[in-house]
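For anyone still unconvinced, we reproduce a single protein record, the chain in one-letter code, the fold tokenised, and leave readers to judge:
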Amino acid sequence: MTKPRPSDVGVLSFRYLGVHEIDELADLWGALHQQHTVTAPHLADIISAVSMDESWRRRRAQYLAWLTDPDTMAILAESGDDPVGYAMVTVKESAQGSWDRGERVAVVQTFAIDPEYSGAGVGSKLLEEVRRQLGAMGVRDIEFSALATSSEDIRFLEQEGFQPFVTTMVCRVDAFGAHD
């Protein structure tokens, strides 16, 4: 039996995870990994997908490395006892190029919402908590990547005030050039 889909999760609690708690994110990462592979099938010929287990092994190692920086945040959103989403956010020095983005810029490395809670306000509330924490740290700008083919994620980000900034293109090193 599945849980009834909530229309609004109401009050969420947020827990900041340390390295010893990172495995609590495995199931939510798994759901995100599955969403990635379904949302971007066009990449199959360019970037090989890995199994969910291998994906978690790699991401877990990256999380542990990022969490050595005291400014990195692993924020778990919970509705009662249910983990419903999380954000992994790092902070980097600003490159100070063509735009004034402040001394440091936040990068949302992962933003995962339990599919059963999609559309229930979890993402907005989690992002609000991320913004609150970053503001307290004096960080002005947030970078948040979305798959180009994920119109739902892009629409959410635009509703949250994000604007397109950089488009990342990918190809294999041995790919052919332009065909004129």
